[in-house]
Amino acid sequence: MKDSRLFKIVYYILDKKHVTAPELAEKFEVSVRTIYRDIDVISSAGIPIYVTTGRNGGIEILDDYVLEQSFFSDKEKKDILSALQSVSVVNSSYEREMLTKLSALFQIPSDDWFEVDFSRWGNASQDNTTFELLKNAVISHKAVSILYVNSNGEKSRRKIYPIKMMFKSKEWYLKAYCVEKSDFRIFKCNRMVRLELLDEEFAPLHYPDEEETRQSGECQQHTSNAEGWPGRLTPMVLRFPKECAYRVYDEFEADSIKEQDNGDLLVSVTMREDQWLIGYLLSFGTQVTILEPVHLKEAIARHAKLIYEKNKE
């Protein structure tokens, strides 16, 4: 079984449990006759694959079959261990135990050659507890009750159906269905101040992607409804002195930064315009100049003046 297509067929059937020859033929862009020849080769390799006929017939692999560890290359084994090591950051005994078992099975030491920690400094316990609870809710399809603080500082109690966790731009987000809003939402995990895993189970849900919402005409609705990042996307141009280069290169993509003749750094970036953005830009103090858009420049000036008036005495 040196042909990579044969391995892919095995993995596909193990994942889907039950498939048809036409389905495999379409998936791997070959004829149905070729698929049946592949099935014969797979069977001759000792894999318990079988074909059933009739109305509900198809191709299956015995339920209790497990791929031998020799089917993985050394690099694949190391990649599997590395991926598992990266999700064991929440100190889950389940992941640590699995990591130990796979290390023994693959006969590869589980060297701690890198460390991933998604928690904030000084807040590891709370962040990891949140991560573990939400991960379990997504996997088990259980509802979660949260007390959530939005970008305007408003607190609200929500019941949500967690669908998928997402790490984006240094932050964890949760894609979920909000029962109170009767719509899909994106929640920023750091803003969940209280969480409770409920006994209620829900049927698996699919979070609509950008293409789906665009086709249905709901793209703007779902964008504005995102609890984690409300507000419109705004292109902006920012200028920083060279003394601020350490932070600019830390927080912006390299291809969005242009160095000027005098050493200044010009950053062209698109960000969501909300209260968080105002605070973020103010955190640069006098080291940022907003060149575009004008209305954002004026908003920052107004907020800076309010800060001055509040703290001048």
UniProtKB/TrEMBL annotation:
Keyword entries, A-Z: Transcription, Transcription regulation
Name of the molecule in the record: YafY family transcriptional regulator
PANTHER family: PROTEIN PAFC, PTHR34580
The keyword Secreted is annotated on this UniProt entry: no
Matches recorded under PROSITE patterns: HTH_DEOR_2, WYL
Pfam families, per the entry: HTH_11 (PF08279), WCX (PF25583), WYL (PF13280)
Annotated InterPro entries: CBASS_pafABC_assoc_protein, DeoR_HTH, HTH_11, PafC-like, WCX_dom, WYL_dom
Boundaries of every HTH deoR-type domain copy: 2-61
Origin: domain of life: Bacteria
